[in-house]
Amino acid sequence: MSDRALPRRGEHSVEELEDLAFELRSKLLQLCGTYEGAVHIGGDLSAADIFTALFGYGLRVDPADIAHPGRDRFVLSKGHAAVCMYIAMAIRGFFSYEGIVETYGQLDSAYGMHPCKVQLPGVECSTGSLGHGLPLAVGMALGARHRDEDHRIVCLLGDGETGEGSVWEAAMAARSNRLGNLVAFVDRNRQLMTSFAEERVLFEPYPDKWRAFGWNVLEIDGHDMGELVRAIDALPDAGSDRPTVVICETVKGKGVDFMEHNLAWHAGSLGAVDLERAMAALSASRTAAVA
Ligand SMILES: Cc1ncc(C[n+]2csc(CCOP(=O)(O)OP(=O)(O)O)c2C)c(N)n1
């Protein structure tokens, strides 16, 4: 057993988390305006509240002690949202935002378009090929059980990604092995890369599919910080015998009106004029939300 103090969960209120989610979206857009390549901005914006709730509230992690054995492990299965994770982690104190912007997406940068745990200590899993994060998380959860550790493994998936068969093999293995220390969040933005989800794959009845695999299912509005916090508070103890999935209903491009529900904004970059428009739209949606 380690004699280091256990990492603490984030301690922000719902209102503070909402401010942090705005900060995260603003920083994402700024980076999208300076980086020359395409940023997966649509699925970053849909997941920004989930990232904020996890890194600002739900996860027991310590930026000053990233290898603590008692820390929760976060696995970004939708690895194309790496930059959103980097910035959420920067806001929690893991890295500096300026450091991310300086080298993001460049050859040999620690901040690649997909996360690499070798290049960037603090990242728990190298991901990017969709469908692999949940199987990895199942292995990590099993390992924790074997070592008698009581931390959680938290995995974020895209809904499109859950069209991969490996996700359902992992879901079955998780329940078979009674992995109550495993929690999946699904960013249910109902869009894939080039199409709307149900046009390609009949996901519905989506929550019932997870229930059929024996999971505890929570369904929430993934942009309502209060609901995110309550879902995190309602998670069963890591020692329980049933994995939990939190299905977060979201909007791809959330917060920037011309990106919302728009297939053109799965990935893209912003010129100076578009950046200004996007920042104005984000501020307007924040003002409307607090009014
Ligand atoms: C195995 C694999 N196939 C294809 C891709 C390319 N790809 C990147 S994002 C994406 C769409 C994924 O949709 P979803 O999981 O719903 O993510 P989101 O809409 O939240 O960005 C695809 C097909 C990939 N990264 N991995």
Describe the 3D structure.
- With 291 residues, the chain is of the alpha/beta class.
- The protein has one domain: Rossmann fold (3-Layer(aba) Sandwich).
- Helix content is 42%, strand content 10%.
- It has 10 helices and 5 strands; from the N terminus they run ααβαααβαβααβαβα.
- The protein has a 5-stranded parallel beta sheet with strand order 1-2-3-5-4, with helices on both faces.
- Helix 2 runs parallel beside helix 3 and helix 2 packs across helix 9.
- The longest helix has 21 residues.
- The N and C termini lie far apart (49 Å).
- The site of thiamine diphosphate has 19 residues, from helix 2.
The radius of gyration over CA amounts to: 18 Å
Order of helices and strands: HHEHHHEHEHHEHEH
Task: Give the distance, in angstroms, between the N- and C-terminal Cα atoms.
Answer: 49 Å
Structural class: alpha/beta
**For the record, what is the CATH homologous superfamily label?**
Thiamin diphosphate (ThDP)-binding fold, Pyr/PP domains
Could you say which small molecules are bound to this protein? thiamine diphosphate
Biggest beta-sheet profile: 5 strands, parallel
What's the mean pLDDT score?
97
Count of helix runs? 10
Question: Low-confidence parts, pLDDT < 50 over ≥5 residues?
Answer: none
- Can you tell me the number of structural domains? 1
Sheet with the most strands: spatial strand order: 1-2-3-5-4
Helix percentage range: 40-55%
User: What is the beta-strand fraction?
Assistant: 5-15%
What is the approximate shape? globular
CATH topology: Rossmann fold
CATH structural class: Alpha Beta
Cofactor: thiamine diphosphate
GO molecular function: magnesium ion binding; transketolase activity
InterPro entries: THDP-binding (IPR029061), Transketolase_N (IPR005474)
EC number: 2.2.1.1
